[in-house]
Amino acid sequence: MRACLARALLAAFLVDFLAGVASAQISGYSTVQANNTAGGEALAGFVTNDILVDFTGQLSGIQLLTDLQAGTIYQTPVFEGGGDTAPNDLFFQVFPSLEFDTFYTLGGPTTATADVTPGLAGGAVSIGGASSSTFSDSLIDVAFFPPGGVQILDQTGYYIARITLSDDTNGELTVFGSTGSVGDLPAQSIPIVNGVIGSLVPPPVLVGDFDGSGVVSGGDLDLVLLNWGQTDPTGSPAGWTTLQPHDGRVTQNELDAVLQNWGRGLSPDFAGAAVPEPGVVAGWFVAAAAFRRRR
């Protein structure tokens, strides 16, 4: 009887424990651009980015790693004793630009608003960084964590860093957070464009590629012919995945886009394909019309 009771208690404990592990996870990252004007003094030529994380469970640590192809990371040059963690806002009146210094933190952008001063673990080794940390005007390579005894639980939009970059900075920021759970989001590489972290680089647009295959070919011509003259009230004829026709109506504009860009593609394998002869296109028109009537 005692053995059965012990097994039942152990099973109940394991269920609760595993449920807690499963629910703990890093679920997302986001960035916000801050207004970098304070005390009437603007930090011209720079973009201030705040880095935030969402998680459930207990935060174990954060790693940050930059890879810059151009530009610089702003580090307040005049503040003696300034560090890599959130600054003391009592100094902002004397050194306004200190508010936009680059730093890592746990919870807020100043010593007054942060939950605690982070512990430094070294470099961002889990995401390709060095074993020792670097926090300079050309590289951020750091791993940090809540110090012993401090629990940071269940947060959305939790403040972990401010990174101010010159407005010609391009590259990427890799972020990796951990709650110690297998459910943690993998490391995320966030693009940096003109100093803005989180800029979405628009995908290349291939005119005439209506089916989204990455090449202008027969599939796109089929879409044009089978939908010729038709108007879809949603603006999206069936099968159309990119470059929706104007007002949802397929006309000569779409046919010209296909024929003028025939064979072009995002892959060099399709370069130089022959444009269909006018007679061939006319034959396709006839076939498409017959097909529509049968439907």
Summarize this structure as a short list of keywords or feature phrases.
295 residues, alpha+beta, Immunoglobulin-like, seven-stranded antiparallel beta sheet, four-stranded antiparallel beta sheet, 28% strand, elongated
Report on this model:
With 295 residues, the protein is an alpha+beta fold. It has two domains: 25-197, Sandwich (Immunoglobulin-like); 218-294, no CATH class. The chain contains four helices and 13 strands. It has helices spanning 2-23, 218-226, 252-260, 278-294; strands at 25-34, 37-38, 41-42, 46-58, 61-70, 103-104, 119-122, 134-135, 140-145, 153-166, 170-178, 188-193, 196-197. The strands form three sheets. Strands 5, 7, 8, 9, 11, 12 and 13 form a seven-stranded antiparallel β-sheet that branches. A four-stranded antiparallel β-sheet has the order 1-4-10-6. The termini are far apart.
Element layout with pairings:
Elements: H1 2-23, E1 25-34, E2 37-38, E3 41-42, E4 46-58, E5 61-70, E6 103-104, E7 119-122, E8 134-135, E9 140-145, E10 153-166, E11 170-178, E12 188-193, E13 196-197, H2 218-226, H3 252-260, H4 278-294
Antiparallel strand pairs: 1-4, 2-3, 4-10, 5-9, 5-11, 6-10, 7-9, 8-9, 11-12, 12-13
Helix pairs in contact: 2-3
